[in-house]
Amino acid sequence: MTAPEGTVEVEVAARRVVANGVLEIELRPVDGTPWPGHGPGAHVDVHLPNGLIRQYSLLSASDGAQPAKIAVLKTDDSRGGSRFVHERLRPGHRILVSEPKNTFELGEKDAHAVLIAGGIGVTPLLAMARRLAARGASFEFHYRVRTPDRAAYATELAALVPAGALHVAADSDGSTFTPEDVLRAAGPNATVYVCGPEAFMEYVRKGALAAGIAADAFRVEHFKHEADTEGRPFTLTAARSKVTVRVGATETPAQVLDRAGVFVPTACEQGVCGTCVARVVSGTPDHRDVVLTAAEKASGSVVTLCCSRAATPELVVDL
Ligand code: FES
Q1: Which atom of ligand 1 is nearest to the CA of 268?
Q2: Span 3-22, mean pLDDT?
Q3: Region at 226 (left for phi over 0; alpha for psi -120 to 50; beta for the rest)
Q4: Span 104-124, mean pLDDT?
Q5: Predicted confidence band of residue 67 (pLDDT cuts 50, 70, 90)
Q6: Which of 114, 103, 90 is nearest to 39 (CA)?
Q7: How many domains does the chain have?
Q8: How confident is the model at residue 64 (pLDDT cuts 50, 70, 90)?
Q9: Are residues 195 and 269 in the same domain?
Q10: The domain containing residue 52 runs over which residues?
């Protein structure tokens, strides 16, 4: 098969469990060509055979010589991306992935980097730790997990992070994590990189603000966002298509419109990429995405159909 432009056909070369519920997958281009080079923090869109597209960080930067590896946490994701990877994806399977993209780049000249991971958000930060260690750069690593057995790559990190600068802790231990204190101690010249669940990143962001970290020295990776897509049923009209549907409590507008024959382009299906944005004709959206800006959300003029809902009984979109 010829991979569509911007994608690479890869074979699952290996899989191994790296923590409770976390599976590492090694991907190799099937035609033997080198994997496209990329810096730390890069991710790929993985096109799963069940039709879902999911974004996963690459565990290392690469000049193309090394195979690509991702790590996937099994979640109760109702759309089934991680479940498919854990239960069905086996060595020898061939899938399409996008070429690496990097929306979470590591600075070249940070005076001091503070890497903060929540759970599976460790993956892009592991790639950054590898690069920082290779550079001999000044950095520290804070890694929060729910339970100790979920701390994937803790051993690798211990070998990479400068002595005394790795802090791995589990919620189940009753320990607390106060980003404001951590970032105040790191100092105002620190650059902060955060990846993890949305609420965790928001918690760290507030701490960074309180600690006086400049906005442009605070970097987050958003694609781990798992949108909460459920809510009250509402009526949705695609005005140009002249189609009206009822969106049930556990359905998304994109799913229902799709069933009714109205094509909604989607990619991430998690409110991250913006592929599914539609103009609002009337009604008020209930935004569940992280891709629209605060101003766009406040204007109520656009909505992400893969995950958002309506705050009014009816929503009409220009589709
Ligand atoms: Fe990515 Fe909706 S498909 S934001």
Answers
A1: 1
A2: 89
A3: beta
A4: 95
A5: confident
A6: 103
A7: 3
A8: confident
A9: no
A10: 7-98
Are 91 and 121 contained in the same domain?
A: no
Residue 1 lies in a domain: no
Hey, what amino acid is at 116? I
Q: Which of 45, 79, 269, 293 to mutate to test the pocket of ligand 1 (most atoms within 8 A of CB)?
A: 269
Encoded tokens for 257: 């419109």
What confidence score (pLDDT) does residue 235 get?
97
pLDDT at 298 over 70: yes
In this structure, is residue 228 part of a structural domain?
no
Of 75, 98, 121, which one is at a domain's C-terminal end? 98
For residues 257 and 162, membership in a common domain is answered with: no
Structure tokens at 93: 């399977």
317 alpha carbon – ligand 1 mean position (Å): 16
Which domain-ending residue is among 221, 254, 271? Answer: 221
Q: How far is the CA of 271 from the centre of ligand 1 (A)?
A: 4
Pocket test residue of 52, 98, 276 for ligand 1, highest count of atoms within 8 A of CB:
276
How far apart are alpha carbons 13 and 90 in whole angstroms? 8
CA 44 to chain centre: 10
- Residues 77-84 have a mean pLDDT of 73
DSSP assignment of 94-141 equals EEEEEPPB-SSPPPSS-SEEEEEEEGGGHHHHHHHHHHHHHHT--EEE
What global pTM score does this model have? Answer: 0.73
Q: Are 227 and 289 in contact (CB under 8 A)?
A: yes
CB hemisphere CA count around 74 (13 angstroms): 14
Amino acid 305: pLDDT: 96
- Sheet of strand 7-19, all strands in order from the earlier edge strand to the far edge: 53-57, 43-47, 94-98, 7-19, 22-29, 68-73
Instruction: Tell me if 39 is assigned to some domain.
Output: yes
Ligand 1 atom with the smallest distance to the CA of 265 is 3
